[in-house]
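Entry 12.
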Amino acid sequence: MWVYDVDTLAFLEVNDAAIAHYGYSRDEFLTMQLGDIRPAGEVPRLRQVVASLAVTGRERAPYHAGSWQHRLKDGRIRDVDISSHAIEFAGRRAVLVVATDVTDLRMAQGALAKHAELPDTP
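Predicted 3D structure (tokens):
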């Protein structure tokens, strides 16, 4: 989980699970923006989605942002499922994000689908 600033897309806070999973220290995260953990091809989509949310404050319902790709500090790309909620954080318009890594699930689903396509053999 993390909190980011709506206007700057800067990370404002991250939890220990994000630090452990992504490989960045808390201090590193707090100098970064959302685009820094995305493959370059996803940054325009990120900016478009954030702009379209028109976050107004605490009244906004939770938002399921769908599937994205994130880049870990070591360069590996992971598939994540994102849910978010608008909040006020330290006097700023912000968004609380829960990111769930679904990479292994997607790989298992792909392997199962591939196996299902194989002809039955005696």
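Annotation: The first helix runs from residue 16 to 22. Confidence is low (pLDDT under 50) at residues 55-59.
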